[in-house]
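step: validate -> pass
step: tokenize input -> pass
step: predict -> running
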Amino acid sequence: GKRSLLGRMPGDRWQQFANLRLFLALMWSHPGKKLLFMGCEFGQWREWDHDQQLDWYLLQYPEHAAAQALVRGLNRLYREEPALHRLDDQDSGFQWLVGDDERNSVFAWLRKGGEGSAPLLVVHNFTPQVLDGYRIGVPHAGRWQVLLNTDDRCWSGSG
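step: predict -> pass
step: emit ->
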């Protein structure tokens, strides 16, 4: 079978959910339209089947409820931040910052919403390692605020 997104993730249960959170954030922060199959929004283990209802009972488990809350948070951020949707189909809405750090498995880019919209810095760490002191060159001086971190405890991350 094709399996669900969560079921395709490598590692133990914690790593599978961490990878699902990373994948969801990657999809929401990257240009292009978003697509989820039913059940992915709360981490259903089995592949979606049009002849059966979704496994709603999974929402009683913290990791599944947190996955659903993350999708809700990503949707809110997508709506509230013009940089994530306004120039979604134009080259001027995207700028690579880090695309070649194979040693640390980090990707970073800017999303831009055009006139009157602040750019949004997106950083994805594809390893379970915390990279304290990791530096990224950005085109604007100042402090950057974290709007969403998929490793936050509220999403069942490690904090």
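step: describe -> Strands lie at 94-101, 106-111, 120-125.
step: cleanup -> pass
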